[in-house]
Specification:
Length: 474
């Protein structure tokens, strides 16, 4: 039996304030980040034919949509805070869900949030050099490990604090912030595409320029490498399921928002790639490390660089906002299940937000930013995160068997063939990640297992609070 809410110190509950439009913007903001300004060059390095590269962007979007449709069925079944954590718990048990949430908190989501905050600081520093990472405040080495604090790190820390404060104050205010950044990005892409094609100094011949041998020169290995980069560029749509407990009419709006959001992302990515290709020949585009600066300079003039940096900083800020919003709901749900710090069940009595969970997340992310070790932790999580997508889509099959009578406002389109197709593709990426990065993959698994003693401890505490409950720990 679950402990009474008053015993947990819960003074209030989350309320449903997010509209369909808010939900679509969560999908867009959570997915579109700085990767769209990096991945096009990465893809063309291994797939040099621009037409084939554009087709792969569509294929990757289709694969993402397969997962989104499966997640839409699960979200309609369990319209509560926690998303994938809840789906895994219902399908595979509390222990499997805990491992997912534990690694998410220690490395995956927290490391991603730290990286987004640093990306925001880097591009903000390019637009305003006074705040760049070149300005070192203090630096020293301890046992051969170099550490430094610079102005860029402080900007990243401040950005996380500001986003956390906004999210604590109001989920609707947080939604308005990410709506603004998402709309700003979409409007800028449409504007750049329109102005670029109408007045830019580009060429349509770039779309047909490629290797002399055409498609035959593209290897299976190259396609595989490109698809890994593409699927990571589409990652982030799942954040919507994490905030399902605050979506109005979730049975309708959550599935619809996932579909509309992913389709909108695919279109936006294609438009961005099209304008990049119009600006630069494929070979030159593939050689870029500062793709957006070079492409905009080629299209318009060299004076747009500062504005491009500020634009990318804004996108990174918006993406970080969604990560702050979604991650705290996972930890809140874990605490309500008795498998995390109990204080994180607290909802602010006035603002109806998981305040303690948000503050705890903020503190840990700041530690990761200042330590400079967030990238190593996030890399360790790549294998585990890929595996969780397989488990999430697989949960559709498990729950159709174990909970056949549970209401399903939306049933996954193309079931069972589309979910099976996605699982086969995703499992192939799990194996390729394990083979390509065995050290990091095993480290991620080890990080998950480090949480087992804490799980046992929290479950024992939960059983003491509810002595009449029966059954094993899981």
């Amino acid at each position: 039996m679950r402990a009474d809410a008053s015993e947990r110190g819960e003074g209030a509950k989350l309320v449903r304030q997010l509209t369909l439009f808010d939900s679509v913007m969560v999908v867009v903001s959570g997915t579109i980040g700085a990767s769209i300004f990096i991945t096009p060059a990465d893809v063309l390095r291994v797939v040099p034919d621009p037409r084939f590269a554009l087709m792969l962007w569509i294929v990757a979007g289709g694969i993402t949509l397969m997962a989104g449709l499966a997640c839409a069925e699960l979200g309609g079944m369990f319209p509560e805070a926690g998303g994938q954590y809840v789906f895994i718990r219902e399908a595979y048990g509390r222990f499997a869900a805990f491992l997912y949430g534990w690694v998410l908190f220690t490395a995956g989501n927290s490391g991603a949030l730290a990286a987004m905050a640093i990306a925001f600081a880097l591009f903000f520093g390019r637009a305003f050099p006074l705040f760049s990472t070149d300005h070192v405040i203090v630096a020293y080495s301890v046992f051969g490990v170099h550490w430094e604090l610079n102005r860029g790190s402080l900007v990243a820390v401040v950005s996380v604090i500001v986003l956390t404060a906004v999210n604590i104050r109001s989920v609707k205010m947080a939604a308005l912030l990410q709506n603004f950044t998402a709309l700003a990005f979409l409007s800028a892409v449409v504007g750049i595409v329109a102005l670029g094609f109408l007045f830019g100094h580009g060429s349509w011949s770039h779309f047909t320029a490629g290797p002399q041998s055409g498609i035959a020169s593209i290897s299976i290995k190259g396609v595989g490498i490109a698809m890994i980069a593409l699927l990571w560029s589409y990652d982030g749509w799942e954040y919507l399921s994490w905030v399902a407990g605050e979506i109005k009419n979730p049975g309708r709006n959550l599935p619809l928002a996932l579909f509309l959001g992913i389709v909108l992302i695919v279109i936006t990515y294609l438009l961005a790639n099209a304008v990049f290709l119009y600006a630069l020949p494929p070979a030159q585009l593939a050689a870029q490390t500062a793709l957006t600066d070079v492409a905009m300079t080629a299209l318009f003039s060299q004076h747009v660089g500062r504005w491009v940096s500020l634009f990318i900083a804004l996108i990174s800020f918006g993406a970080a906002s969604v990560v702050v919003l979604g991650g705290a709901r996972i930890y809140y749900s874990m605490a309500r299940d008795g498998v995390f710090f109990q204080g994180m069940t607290r909802v602010h009595p006035r603002w109806k937000t998981p305040a303690t969970s948000l503050l705890t997340q903020c503190v840990w992310v700041i530690v990761l930013i200042l330590s400079g070790r967030y990238e190593q932790l996030y890399t360790c999580f790549v294998f585990m995160m890929t595996l969780t997508y397989v488990l999430t889509v697989g949960a559709v099959f498990v729950l159709r068997w174990t909970q056949p009578d549970r209401p399903r406002p939306y049933r996954c389109t193309g079931y069972p063939w589309l979910p099976i197709a996605y699982m086969l593709v995703a499992f192939g990426f799990v194996l390729s990640t394990l083979l390509a990065r065995p050290g990091e993959s095993l480290a991620g698994l080890g990080l998950a297992l480090l949480g087992v003693p804490l799980y046992v401890h929290w479950r024992r505490q939960e059983r003491r609070r509810a002595p009449d409950s029966a059954g094993s720990l899981p």
